[in-house]
Write a structure and sequence with these properties.
There is one protein chain. This protein is an alpha/beta fold and 177 residues long. The chain has a single domain, classed as 3-Layer(aba) Sandwich (Collagenase (Catalytic Domain)), CATH 3.40.390. The chain contains 6 helices and 5 strands; from the N terminus they run βααβαβββααα. Strands 1, 2, 3, 4 and 5 form a 5-stranded mixed β-sheet that branches. It is globular and about 45 Å long. It starts with a strand and ends in a 6-residue tail after the last helix.
């Protein structure tokens, strides 16, 4: 099963040239890991429909950009670190893609959009004392789990989501450093 990340950059120079390739590769790895059967039935569901794979779109922006998305889509007029916009209604990794969810041009199922504030991620990496790559990877894992129907509204759900995020990252060797 293919796992494709499409990347959009709303602002130039959000990343240094050295960071960009490593960060984007890391995000793609996190997405592939989040789609494993232990987190979701997404791969099995997509295979049943005949899809070749799954894809997401990740948009990188600044605080003003993410504040605009947050105000427009959630009615919250302030910046945040990451937003997720699921395209399919999974519930805690369960659910299914339907035949009509397959893009006829790519033969892939689109799971949704993720928007990340790069300056916010840099600030949080510094605040929490770990690398920028680790923070971007964490925000990606968090978002991908939201696309798969996980949330953190209740303490029990938050505990589960935190455990899954850390497992995804540790399985990839992306640890706090």
């Amino acid at each position: 099963m293919k796992h494709r990340c499409m990347f959009r950059f709303e602002k130039r120079k959000l990343f240094g040239a050295d960071d960009k390739k490593d960060i984007l590769s890391s995000i793609a790895d996190v997405f592939r890991e989040a789609c494993l059967p232990e987190y979701s039935c997404v791969e099995a569901s997509c295979s049943e429909t005949g899809a070749k794979g799954v894809e997401v779109c990740i948009t990188f922006t600044d605080d003003a950009g993410i504040q605009k998305y947050n105000a427009e889509h959630r009615g919250i007029d302030r910046p945040t670190d990451v937003l997720s916009f699921p395209a399919i209604g999974f519930d805690r990794g369960k659910g299914s893609a339907e035949f009509f969810d397959i893009d006829p041009e790519t033969n892939m199922v689109f799971l949704g959009d993720v928007v990340i504030s790069v300056p916010r991620a840099r600030e949080q990496a510094e605040k929490f004392g770990h690398s920028f790559k680790r923070e971007i990877s964490f925000l990606s894992a968090h978002s991908f789990l939201h696309l798969l129907g996980y949330d953190h509204e209740k303490p029990k759900d938050e505990k589960e989501m935190n455990r899954l995020q850390e497992k995804i990252l540790s399985d990839l060797g992306i640890v706090r450093a």
